[in-house]
Design a protein that fits this description.
The structure is a single chain. This protein has about 270 residues and is of the alpha+beta class. The chain is built from 9 helices and 6 strands; from the N terminus they run ααααααββββααββα. The strands form 2 sheets. The protein has a 4-stranded antiparallel sheet with strand order 1-2-3-4. A hairpin with a 2-residue loop joins strand 2 and strand 3. Helix 3 packs across helix 4 and helix 7 runs antiparallel to helix 8. It is flat, with a radius of gyration of 21 Å.
């Protein structure tokens, strides 16, 4: 379903699943079928390939095989949703077993896919270069713009994507500590919330940084300029404090706070 979906569609589907009882389905139906205490059928590694139709002579897959394929697809296509399920919905015993299974049978395939996607991606020029290291479980991105330079390293957990990606700036020039801390918060938030590849998240981060140098101000709610889901800029302006917000962020703020006031100055919106 999500193999070729746009980021906006994937985010909406993921949000719908999250609030429609999918975590319960994973705990009650999928989890008992996963071979957590023994290797999965075949080679022992979960396949990330899209399922194909069976021929007349092909035997139907067993329940464990289907569970393995579904679990791998969830981690591949909607990692943010899978991470929420892992951190919030599992018992302590299941938590450890799922992490161990993912580390051994899913993460290696995901890392290979990420590395292949990065290698195959069109070049963005010398100002933005991304490289992946499977052995080090890391992705390195270098960004330069008119005298500004920084090198960012994303360090992936052994049970990626069940645990958050660590973001480290190993080199920088022309970027203050305060600005880097803000950018680090931005990319960390993107990586936690986005259902997509690491390359996609880094490309979105680059787009945000480009906009900073163009003079566009970030949304005070999500601290990003280009919205991670809608890809829109902050356009809705408060008539009092004149801060600009993403429409999606403002809608979420109104819904969660049950207020119709500016998130910063608290003036009634309208």
């Amino acid at each position: 379903l999500l193999a070729h979906a746009r980021p906006t569609a994937a985010a909406r589907v993921s949000a719908g699943w999250k609030h429609s009882g999918l975590p319960g389905f994973l705990n009650e139906t999928l989890l008992p079928l996963l071979p957590l205490a023994r290797p999965p059928p075949g080679s022992g590694a979960a396949s990330l390939a899209a399922p194909t139709s069976l021929g007349e002579s092909d035997p139907p897959p067993g329940a464990a095989e289907v569970a393995v394929a579904v679990f791998a697809a969830l981690l591949s296509r909607v990692p943010a949703l899978a991470r929420h399920w892992y951190t919030s919905e599992l018992s302590r015993a299941a938590h450890a077993a799922v992490a161990r299974y993912t580390e051994l049978h899913v993460t290696p395939a995901l890392l290979r896919r990420e590395a292949e996607a990065i290698s195959a991606a069109p070049s963005s020029g010398d100002d933005f270069v991304v490289k992946a290291s499977i052995g080090a479980r890391s992705v390195t991105a270098t960004y330069s713009y008119e005298g500004t330079y920084m090198q960012i390293v994303l360090r992936l957990d052994r049970a990626h994507p069940l645990r958050a990606v660590e973001v480290e700036c190993t080199q920088r020039a022309g970027v203050s500590d305060a600005r880097w801390r803000k950018w680090q918060r931005t990319i960390s938030t993107m990586l936690l919330a986005q259902n997509g590849s690491l390359r996609d998240a880094l490309a979105l981060f680059k787009e945000n940084v480009d906009r900073v140098f163009e003079g566009v101000e970030e949304c005070p709610i999500c601290y990003a300029i280009v919205h991670g889901t809608t890809r829109q800029l902050p356009k809705l302006s408060c008539r009092t404090c004149h801060n600009k917000f993403h429409a999606a962020c403002l809608y979420k703020w109104f819904s969660s706070s049950q207020k119709s006031s500016c998130p910063l100055c608290q003036t009634a919106w309208g």
